[in-house]
């Protein structure tokens, strides 16, 4: 099936009344969750996950994805009008969005955001249409060692490039991998980490884990601890949203650049919308002729990050759908949903379940259209939603969590497991761990172990199999660059000598693994060096270190 | 509020404990060899790596003597003292749900779950809590009992 036929097939599925309805429900809930201060996408997706078990897989996936991209529209409203970074990807939008609101231009900022969002999303979807089938085709030739190395790369990127300390991120990923091991081992039937409890022999339920970590833990953190909502500027109507011609002109190029940055970020596993928006903002500030305007209501400072968020949100689906490797925790949940619905994620998904893949893509078009319609004429309604106080929100959500987890397997034991992970998750939050990588590890854990075992059985216990096969070696070399590069950047300030040793070891390992990647590294280093000589500044550019930008 | 340095020390300690615990438990299952891996291989290996990560986290906290100010999340004001009321009510609400769903039935479970959670907020009062709990109960019974057919009787013993 080529792209055009596939898309037509997809539309025929996405426009079925039943699927259309669930797509609508998904994006509406997503938008609502985005607007409500104190609710996260992750908790919303996991609360609704058990409700989809009775649905057809296509409808379930359309709805759950709708929540994800729908929330990006709502999140913008929250950060521009209220200065509340309810959602990490939109935190940076507050910097310029709220000053614009204070100047009475909140409507214009929202209007520009909507235009940018639509543009970015469209680009992201096109990217998925063109690249995902191609990537899947390449991935057909992957054997167990390649899949293993690729997963390692995905896990490493997901844990070190995301928010927070990379070391803690890796620790959380490993913890997630271990939680994925709980239950009966598929190969030998031995029960692992069940502590003699029969209810655990099926493993930890995905819903219980995610609702504990992202639902209950979040409530424990936020109760009595939310900033009062400042509604003084939040009266926006539809006619305020139309930007003037000059403002359109000002926003056009930032939107274009934001789109490109977003789609680039979505290509790197582990760098989701949050990093894309931070990088886009930093880049825009650097390029701008008036960097002093940033932070005081620069239109570019709203347009670029918002656009990049949307293009990377749509692009995020590419590795999930074509390789079965989720880029972030939301994608991990979606992957978990696919598995629960009996669909094996991986390169075969596009061929074996074209209805899901193409239906999903078509529903992106439909869903984004619905979101524009929902947001532009009905903006006043969403603004009113901002006023729902947290003290009504979290008790209701708690009930949905309890009943949702119960409905999953009709087990009150799982509700207890959720509570356990809620308290544990709060402990982790207090110790400044980011719990999101746990979910990545948890979802990939069983497949990682299976492929690792299989690779070594085929090679008769020879670890060289991961290095000898060039595709696998290439992935491994990226892993080395990822770890070595971050160590290098971090050590440079205090221990310059150690950092150069790390750099040399990294390069040597890369050269051993793959000469082409080594050549690429040398070119990048040469270019950086040349640039740093010209600028006579340290060679730290914002694009080279998304992790640090996001960490700020 | 504990200092950042000490917090990272605790964090590393916790990770080390979990990792070494998993490694010890994992090594009790058969480890096997690389060619023929037993069920204990992966847990033990992960446990060892996790324990090493714990040591590294603790080490970096000791080496990083600079006390950089923690990033402030504007949505959440920094928590200064433990909020036992909020925590107790949220945890209590889930426990209430578990026990009342088991012994009393769906309607009391929903009502009590929401009602208990409401008191976690410092500004809660009887009227708003009852109203919210009643509303959610009606909505919840309609959605979960009649539409989604959750397997809990409306009231046990009827």
What does this structure look like?
The complex is a heterodimer of chains A (552) and B (158). Chain A is mostly helical. Helix content of chain A is 72%, strand content 1%. Chain A has a two-stranded antiparallel ribbon with strand order 1-2. In chain A, strand 1 (183-184) and strand 2 (191-192) form a beta hairpin. In chain A, helix 4 (57-82) packs parallel to helix 16 (354-375) and helix 14 (329-340) crosses helix 20 (436-458). The longest helix of chain A is centred in the first third of the chain and has 34 residues, at 106-139. Chain B has helices at 4-28, 41-63, 84-103, 106-118, 126-147. Chain B is flat. At the A-B interface, helix 8, helix 9, helix 18, helix 19 and helix 20 of A face helix 1, helix 2, helix 3, helix 4 and helix 5 of B.
Give a quick set of tags describing it.
heterodimer; A: 552 residues; mainly alpha; 25 helices; 2 strands; 72% helix; disordered C terminus; B: 158 residues
Short description:
Chain A has 552 residues and is mostly helical.
Helix-strand makeup class of chain B? mainly alpha
**Helix amount of chain A:** over 70%
Oligomeric state as shown: heterodimer
Percentage of residues in strands of chain B = under 5%
Tally the helices of chain B: what do you get? 5
Count of individual beta strands of chain B: 0
